[in-house]
Amino acid sequence: MVVCRSRALGQLSGRGWKRALLSLRPPWAWVRPLSNGKPKADTHFGFETVSEEEKGDKVYHVFESVAKKYDVMNDSMSLGIHRLWKDLLLQKMHPFSGTKLLDVAGGTGDIAFRFLNYIKAQNQRRQQRELKSHQNLSFGDIAKWYQNSRCSLGESHVVVCDINKEMLKVGKQKAQTLGHKKGLAWVVGDAEELPFDDDKFDVYTIAFGIRNVTHIDRALQEAHRVLKPGGRFLCLEFSQVNNPIISRLYDLYSFQVIPVMGEVIAGDWKSYQYLVESIRRFPPQEEFKEMIEDAGFQKVAYESLTSGIVAIHSGFKL
Ligand SMILES: C[S@@+](CC[C@H](N)C(=O)[O-])C[C@H]1O[C@@H](n2cnc3c(N)ncnc32)[C@H](O)[C@@H]1O
Ligand 1 mean position to 159 CA, how many Å? Predict the structure, then answer.
């Protein structure tokens, strides 16, 4: 680089020299200002280049702004399909009575509520089977048994962790409306620095959250740290569409329709513009699989759903 510049300077004279010298950037000009002795790195916020610090603030602002309309927008944008993707995540998880789940970037609680319903339904079925196998039960015994089974969670528990208080606030209100009182906790925390001890959870989930995180590698390492040996990592995230025709239609829908919907339903064009841009910036299936492996997970696999619009990645801490 330096050699090329001096060669170019060698061919100049008079005013040309002066102009060339003035146009030369000093070597420190492309290093961003220092903060705590470290150069500030750039990252992306959708298609925009921003500092890492700015990204965190901007992402926070997006979800603070959309929190109240988040669920309505999810249903409208995906025509309700996000519900099926989330159901599939639960089927893959196949939790058992006693599972301790950590749902990171859990927002308004969709994964947590599905988990609680799954466990309750499973326990109810088991108790019904047991009940049928008992002979000579009184009416009182049967009534008591049914009452217990309806709210039975066993030792299962889910912690919803999210960086955004507004999203959690909406989630807590939803939990009240849906009647989820037990087996559920809400924690404000950053996926990159989880406020939990090592080896604590059986399952870690993150649904449509990881692409918003500034350092995906750090979030993955944290997932690995808080899982018990044998624990499972599951991530549901937008991915790369593998059919060129669907890809064109999807692009058209994403860039032409979603921001307009965002404006009409939530009065917020920009946040939904970010949403579609952030999806395009997220690594494709294979690349993300390698990142999960780099964090120490084993038996990493993924399944693309709806032509790759989303994918579920899974890995184990062994
Ligand atoms: C698209 S929402 C997904 C919410 C929920 N998991 C769902 O599937 O409906 C993304 C969530 O990620 C959260 N988030 C973004 N950055 C985060 C971080 N560094 N740590 C924890 N949560 C984060 C946001 O606050 C937001 O609630």
Answer: 14
Report, as an integer, the average pLDDT of 46-56.
86
Quote the pLDDT of residue 16: 40
User: Kind of pairing, strands 157-162 and 201-207?
Assistant: unpaired
> Minimal CA–CA distance to 291: which of 306, 307, 302?
302
Taking phi first (over 0 means left), then psi (-120 to 50 degrees means alpha), and beta for anything else, what does residue 208 get? left
Please name the residue whose Cα sits nearest to atom 6 of ligand 1.
106
**What is d(CA 148, CA 163) in angstroms, rounded to the nearest whole number?**
35
Where is average pLDDT lowest: 141-145, 236-240, 265-269? 141-145
Residue 267 in tokens = 């009065």
**Is the confidence at residue 54, as pLDDT, over 80?**
yes
For residue range 247-301, what is the model confidence (pLDDT) as tens digits? 999 999 999 999 999 999 989 999 899 999 999 999 999 999 999 999 999 999 9
Give the integer Cα–Cα distance in Å for 230 and 297: 10
CA-nearest of 284, 293, 60 to 164 is 60
What is the Cα–Cα distance from 311 to 318, expressed in whole angstroms? 23
Q: Which of 52, 55, 58, 63 most suits a substitution to test ligand 1, by most atoms within 8 Å of the C-beta? A: 63
Q: Is the pLDDT of residue 214 over 90?
A: yes
**Domains in the chain, start-ordered, CATH in brackets?**
55-116+156-316 (3.40.50.150)
Scored b (16 or more CB within 10 A) or e, 194-204 reads bebeeebbbbb
Nearest to 92 by CA among 191, 234, 190: 234
